[in-house]
Write a structure and sequence with these properties.
homodimer; 229 residues; alpha/beta; two-stranded antiparallel sheet; globular
Chain lengths: 229, 229
């Protein structure tokens, strides 16, 4: 990059853009970027599993990040009430997200867009959202380059998830306090062709995390390890 | 993490979350995460400068990413017309973004939310958007932890930017083909207390990038270098 000739007081420079490419970012990271999309019923263990996989990848030196309800619903997909103070009521009503069908669709779309950016940055991006509708998950798959979207179905019977009920949400849904709750009065549409299915009723998060890591090694997303540490 | 006792066929495990912390991610990266928010008129060189800084940081081994119109307006902040095929007209009209005041406000809010996530991931996040309104930039500053938002005002007189006009946008704005164009028929509100001001009419991108890097070293965001490579 060199400056051009001066004209008066103003430097007339050529303003090139030498953008760092995705391939360069992945080379520096030592692995490919991708989106590990964990999907399943509330209480199936998506978030715990995503964090367990994240821990393993981080300890191997991978560049990672977890997107989940905690960090998305407080910012990117904030509820209308959270936006109102700073942006006003009309703005909040239009762009704030609740849990209705269109709101959920837009929530998943925004998360997919952000996950795409993280993958472009060479990061292994783990998302943990119920994402119950096949159409919404397929829309995310469709917006990503081929191979970037890794759908991980965290499978567990409704009874098991309801038995765990870590946040007491099933209890409230059964009592009618929450409407449109996935598995109770709203459907969960199982993936038809996920990259990976893990059985969260039959094994603990350590074992399931190993299965995900093994998949990533087989797929060539991360380098294989000769001896596990 | 250990499995608990079995009850029938179902493994009754304790599902801990051992989330990787931001501090751990920053330690692995070797620098702090932050948001370098480049703001200024169209044609001031925001994007070129952001990419020049990104190149330097990448070559030093930093974890970085650039958010700009190219990668945001095609996904996260897609126009209604881009959403319609997949999501329908009503959805597209509500969530798709144009260039009206509320749409711009929401665009900056989404970008700020995403930049916040990248910073949490320990990444030096560079954003290159005109972001003409003080209120919108201050809203992003307000949503980030103290110290994370680094406002870089890329200063250049309107005449210089209009003289460059790399995309021919000023010409179209002067001809009335684009309405509400910053600097022509819509205001650019200069930052009142930016972390850094760079003079893009008086120096080329190499020199300005050096100034940004020097600032990051002084601020302790990235480690100092004894000898430049």
């Amino acid at each position: 990059m060199t400056d051009g000739k001066r004209s008066g007081e103003v430097v007339d420079v050529r303003w090139h853009a030498h953008a760092v490419t995705r391939a360069e970012r992945e080379r520096a990271a030592g692995h490919r970027g991708c989106v590990l999309w964990f999907t399943g019923l509330s209480g199936c263990g998506k978030s715990t599993l995503a964090n367990a996989v994240d821990r393993r990848l981080h300890d191997r030196g991978c560049r990672t990040f977890v997107l989940d309800g905690d960090n998305v619903r407080h910012g990117l997909s904030a509820a209308p009430a959270m936006l109102e103070a700073r942006h006003g009521r009309e703005f909040a009503a239009r762009f704030g997200l609740g849990f209705g069908p269109a709101d959920r669709e837009e929530n998943i779309r925004r998360i997919g867009s952000v996950a795409e950016l993280f993958a472009q940055a060479g990061i292994i991006t783990l998302t943990a959202f119920i994402s119950p509708y096949r159409r919404d998950r397929d829309a995310v798959r469709g917006m990503l380059p081929p191979g970037d979207f890794v759908e991980v179905f965290v499978k567990a019977p409704l009874e098991v998830c309801e038995g765990r009920d870590p946040k007491g949400l099933y209890k409230r849904a059964r009592a009618g306090e929450i409407k449109g709750f996935t598995g109770i009065d709203d459907p969960y549409e199982e993936p038809l062709a996920p990259e990976l299915v893990v059985d969260s009723a039959g094994a603990g998060p350590d074992e399931l995390a190993d299965q995900v890591i093994a998949w990533l090694e087989r797929a060539g997303t991360i380098p294989r390890r000769v001896s596990p540490s």
